[in-house]
Amino acid sequence: MKTISLSSQNTVETAPGVQMQGFAGEQLMVTHLFFEAGAGPAAHSHPHEQMTIIVSGEAEFTLGEERTVLKAGDLISIPSNVVHRAVALTAVEMYDIFTPTRADLIEKLGL
Known about the structure:
Layout: E1 12-15, E2 18-24, E3 29-35, E4 49-56, E5 58-63, E6 66-71, E7 75-78, E8 84-88, E9 92-99, H1 103-109
């Protein structure tokens, strides 16, 4: 059995104003993110399926040409290889869940 306290994990800045912690299993991983208002990574895509859960705050998500604003309690599904971006409209806490695991984030987070 593999368990951790997510709050005790290393925190890494993945983009200006974006802090991330993470935990990975064999085929699934979760990241815990904190965005400062106005912060967000550049538009990107990856072959991993992603789900995002907003814990607090509001963020605008762009998937392809579609835009939507999500707030605490909202979830979004991001299919593989779709260009997407999130920008925090307020300070935001969220979780991203990926399958399969992302080797790039595992390395960056030192997992």
